[in-house]
Fold these 2 entries.
Entry 1:
Amino acid sequence: METSFYKMHGLGNDFVVMDERRGRLDLTPARIAALSDRFRGIGCDQFVLLRPACREGADVFVRFFNADGSESGACGNASRCVASLIGREAGITAPVLQTRAGLLGTEIGDDGMITVDMGPPALGWRDIPLSHEVDTLRLPLWGEPAAASMGNPHATVFLSPDDMTDPRQRGPLLEHDPLFPERANIGFAQVRSAREMRLRVWERGAGLTLACGSGACAAVVNGVRRGLLDRTCRVEMDGGALSVTWRETDGHVLMSGPAVLSFTGLVALDTYPR
Ligand SMILES: N[C@H](CCC[C@H](N)C(=O)O)C(=O)O
């Protein structure tokens, strides 16, 4: 028996989306990792599951899994993709996503750009989380990153404009540092001006991706905290740019960008290891 899936991306950060709203699928972390494999499976950075919403006001419950099968509380680019799917399916322009990080309001613009309210960042060491109390604005690690959670742990290293650090070298070492009991996504940021930043993210459980929405949000929050950025910033990544605002009135972080449905397909789930 074959099961349908959507293949989507946000600035090249790509996803396989499967729907459990009409019944559970036989999925395990190992099978999710196998489906995410770019050679033996469909291939994606993150695997996204849709389930019936169980909170008032939400249109869908969304869970995010990395290519290694680990679960993440947030995924900004995938949130835009799901908002686009639900918006088209239900004929609405402001779907509400229930996630492990809370309810996310979204808005689908006439221009196809999608804005997600990612909620407020968490900046306390226990919320990131870190293994013990340190200054989350300047961690005692290589590159002295600043840490913030957008529902998932992020550490942002601010590099000089001409720095050639390769995220594939430094990223894994920082991702697995014992200071991060749940590992962390590592952003490598180069500030161009108060409203423009270049960012590459070594993602927990997925590696170097073309774009990272929650990583862009965390990098803007950390840049503002460091006095390097205005509250609205254009974040340019390898796959393209997002607009991020850390709103002063309520502390929420708004992220705007595209979402693309690449194709739909069918997969024989039971041929994948459990
Ligand atoms: N690509 C995602 C980030 C996934 C985060 C995941 N790697 C984690 O374990 O937190 C985004 O657009 O926000």
Entry 2:
Amino acid sequence: MKTSIATVSLSGDLPEKLDAIARAQFTGVEIFENDFLTFDHSPATVGRMVRDKGLTVTLFQPFRDFEGMPEPLRSRGLDRAERKFDLMQELGADLLLICSNVSPHALGGVSRAADDLRELGERAAKRGLRIGFEALAWGRFVNDHRDAWEIVRRADHPAVGLILDSFHTLARGIDVASIRSIPSDRIFLVQLADAPKLELDLLSWSRHFRNMPGQGDLPVTAFMDAIWATGYDGVVSLEIFNDQFRAGSARAVAVDGKRSLVYLADQLGQLDAADSIPPRAICRGVEFIEFALNEATIEEFRNLIGALGFHLAGRHRSKQVELWCQGDVNLVLNYEREGFAHTFYLTHGPSVCAWCLKVADADAAERRASGLLALPFRQAVGLGELEMPAVRGVGGSLVYFVDDNSGLTRWRDIDFEAANKEDHSPVQVGITNVDHLSQSMEYDEMLSWLLYYGSILDLNKTDGQDVADPGGLVRSQVIQNDERSLRIVLNGSQSRRTLSGRFLNEFLGSGTQHIALATKDIFATVAALQSRGFSPLPIPANYYDDLIARFGLDDDLIARLRQANILYDRDTTGGEYFQCYTKVFAERFFFEIVERRGYDGYGAANAPFRLASQSRLSHRPEGVA
Ligand SMILES: O=C(O)c1ccc(O)c(O)c1
Ligand SMILES: [Mg+2]
């Protein structure tokens, strides 16, 4: 697949954009005229810069308000085009995008437009150039690719072709089946963009809210399927007008763009054999969670997880690393003075530095992640110790993969020496497995991480929700598998004053903020924990009064919930959810204990109460209980 991206999609000046595009392994670049005009070098120099990066110019654009003009505007348009042809020849671009006319002077008429394009095509052909006609969704007379195609067909000139842009077609809800009958050699370029569903005029929607294929709500996959059904094997180019992206990191946005294209082609079975990747990794669950600690913080952390019923199960054979277990939950406490976890500790303080996911095939999962431009990670291991495949994830943390077939799930026995039973004898408080993991990030990063998880792993996103934090709104988005053996909640805060926002400030970046542990009997678990000195996040009495009003629970249940600081939710099918939180550890992360009774959500209705309690505690002066 020949991939390209428009310079207008990225932040920075032209050299920064080209650098980001080349690093993300695109084949080519659409040069947007404005990016060129605002750069103080000749077209020849820009052309050389593009080629030096190993890229080709796939398109020069846009050329506006050309077809269907009365004289003298028609002649002026042709003259204007000749100047652009000069520039393109110097630049080394052979295709010019003509977008449909929006001028009040435009006259309309299919034959007139076809005549104009034929004449311009004839002039382009003399110089070895081509022109592509694109219907803007808000074009005055041409705003539908079917009309643009009729005009191109009638122009009947080898240097005149059609440019299809998914946004313009899909935003107007035009049936993509109409693409299938267009001869592929008449499609000169395909531009791709997705967008969220919004009630907005077409132009504003297009100029500010486009996003990468798969990140929005438009049926871009069906669009591309129709394109490939024609036999088209030309350039697929991203043209993403998005205010957030233009304010973000050019490199990160370019990587997301390439990832979205590879994923799209993969979904439609269109990746070249040489680029093919294994299918989305099937997750069986969370194998372990690794914490970056140091000698000063580890004791306090041991106390916390000890109070939660975890016991020391093993010590690493060559490293300052402990394994604490309960049920199927494995916590790895790393307080080495070198290596990845230590570096992570130095940057972020006590924190979750890695997750290990159990998948069907660990090696395949890593190959897929690498094919989707995730950064592979390797670290020195001791003799005979396991080398686990890993890639970089949110905030520079790691995602390890293990599976049964390769023996990687034997990491406990291979890398760890079993701890003395007398050290910490296993207790049973009833925690069985990890229910879900939650990560906090900048609001602007959420689309990026959703694409990361959804393209690499067999996970699907649900509708996002806004949660009220005393410091501002937090956007919450779930991505999970059908089996529910992996559930991830992403929280994006636009305000620095929310708990998530403060986490980002204090933690110096995005990362895991909250780990939910499942029990089959939350009342028994919390009672057992209380006898071990566990002190839950206190929930105000008002919450329980409101519960009576909302759900009509009986007095006895309310009293038990209140006594144990357990939150309650019920869904429309009668499924019930019980949640109890720990206090925040080192102002960074916390645990939650949950019990599900036929309930599939995450207690969003309770989040404001939990956030208010956490906020109250974190604002309380030192020493005040
Ligand atoms: O918003 C625009 O004007 C514009 C210009 C060129 C394009 O290819 C496009 O899709 C939109
Ligand atoms: Mg376009």
